[in-house]
Amino acid sequence: MKSPILAMAAVAALGLNLVGCKPKDAGSAVSGDAAEKVYVAPGKHDEFYNIVSGGFNGQMSVYGIPSGRLLKIVPVFSVFPENGWGYSEESKPMLNTSHGEVPWDDLHHIALSTTNGEHDGRWAFGNANNTPRVARVSLSSFRTEEILELPNSAGNHSSPFITENTEYVIAGTRFSVPTDNNADVPISTFKQNFKGYISFINVDKNTGRMGIAFQLKTPGVSFDLARAGKGKSHGWFFFSTYNTEQANTLLEVNASQKDKDFILAVNWKKAEEYLKQGKGRKEPAKYAHNLYDEKTHTATSTIMNEVITLDPKECPGIVYFIPCPKSPHGCDVDPTGEYIVGSGKLAAVIPVFSFDKLQKAIADKTFDGDFDGIPVVKYEAALYGEVQKPGLGPLHTEFDGQGNAITSFFVSSELVKWNIKDLKVLDRVPTYYSVGHLSIPGGPTKKPHGKYVIAYNKITKDRYLPTGPELAQSAQLYDISGDKMKLLLDFPTVGEPHYAEAIPAALIAKNSTKIYKIEENGHKYAAKGEKEAKVVREGNKVHVYITSIRSHFTPDNIEGVKLGDEVYFHVTNLEQDWDVPHGFAVKGGDNAEILIMPGETQTLRWKPNRVGVVPIYCTDFCSALHQEMQGYVRVSPAGSNVQLTWGTGKNPVAEAEKKVAKK
Ligand code: RUQ
Ligand code: CUA
Predict the structure, then answer these.
(1) Is residue 535 lining ligand 2, measured as CB closer than 6 Å?
(2) CA of 621 to the centre of ligand 2 (A)
(3) Among the atoms of ligand 1, which is closest to the Cα of residue 456?
(4) pLDDT digits (tens, 9 = 90+) for 609-639
(5) What is the pLDDT of residues 102-153, one digit of tens each?
(6) Is the Cα torsion angle 101, 72, 452, 426 positive or negative in sign?
(7) Closest ligand 1 atom number to CA of residue 157
(8) Ligand 1 centre distance from Cα of residue 108 (Å)
(9) CA gap 315, 269 in Å, rounded
């Protein structure tokens, strides 16, 4: 171990560089045919969907590749007023947690579902870093269908990563913390009381429904990233760790003391055996499980009370540490499953481990003692080799399916291509600037689609028109079909992109949801035709069963609402055509609009706070007479005896008077 002063000096010396350096030839690195290669003519479709994490905006965004055109933002962990996510009554339960509603999160990583290690185009998973959760987004409806909270975890960074057949989505904690059941302890008791939990989430083959199968209770370290084994290493999982110093303060220095941190190798097939033998322990834990139902168009949130944990100390053979220099970040497995690439943020080499050698080392017990009771495999015994002088600050590695790897370098701002077998550097290109993640379509799968690599940069500086103190976030597209990588395109992104996955459009486009069938609408407050439209008072709650169809609402005149009422507009969109959502908004509401897809029902809650006649209207330009798609609600004082009446195309007050006259 280095002395703390030396380590501090090393960090300080690197310090200048840790923020990234700017390549000299910025701006002049584009080849002649770049425009042609990214030009997707008007009316033509892109070749790939690119699902990009939104970082601190908590969303996923969808871009076309190679054009870099933004197609959609899918709200996941953060409220999204544009379509009412987190504002409509139906979607509110999706953001429920054991802490109550959490309206924001920080989404770093995307994992697209796979079958036999190849993209199957069904779901995209995403992680919430802040309040640990994993979400599942349907790649048919492009909507978040499920969010599962993770107990005993803090800062769910090493997540979500999936096994070959999406058997499991895993989630490792970034912060080791005291377990939820032993939470009130001094921070200085890190070594005794802080644990690192890794959640193994099972995924139903048909529905995608998630549940926590078990949690592995590991020594208190920080988990950063992970990848599942594949092919020969299917059944194993590999995690990068840092802060194996187990420091609880000034980690910048204290967690950079050791020459090597670890990669944690987990034999999850063996963990399953222990579970079958009853080695799992049921522990109380509080976490939310939220599901969006496409038939009722409504989400539910269930608080769960128990989780099964496995302690590796009681289950020998399921976890091993492999030393890895130095503060590893990415931990990536090549398409064959044989090579495991560690990327030490402060390391001068890229270590590549061999799965076969690891197996042999475990069989021969070639260990270097243990760390907190867990065997540490000798570095050389698991090492296949090191890529020498690759660059500064390696972060992440993806694979092109041609036997090559491409690694991102944050500090030296470049992508470096190297051959996996002989570990020779083949090519390097600058990024603008300070690349974090990179992504090759299918890069983490057994069969990469190749063709492009996309760099997700942390800093853009002078690349775009200035927009005040905060500049555009950005991605860059490179052609990797030849020997040399070629920069094709810069495109700005929303939020701060971290990881992304691109997938051939052919695997997704054909399955796109077009409408929801109105006859299958199982929403409690649906009005499946204008005849079913009505207004019902239940005490101070007023339920408005309102329909929308080009270009009117039924009812569009409502009277008899009083101060102190809570009004629920349950809007059913009667359209059965693709691409005809209607919106709904009310003047002065303490809420966002809602956007209702064809055949769907969504609810806007409104608590009027003054007497008057209040406009309601459609927010989505749906027809030539969209602007006419409007109506009125009359709000009377609390004790008023204005009757509850409603109608469209008739004067509801006159109608009510007629009714009274008839009686
Ligand atoms: S991380 S820039 Cu949050 Cu995935 Cu590596
Ligand atoms: Cu409906 Cu505009």
Answers:
(1) no
(2) 5
(3) 2
(4) 999 999 999 999 999 999 999 999 999 999 9
(5) 999 999 999 999 999 999 999 999 999 999 999 999 999 999 999 999 999 9
(6) negative
(7) 3
(8) 7
(9) 12
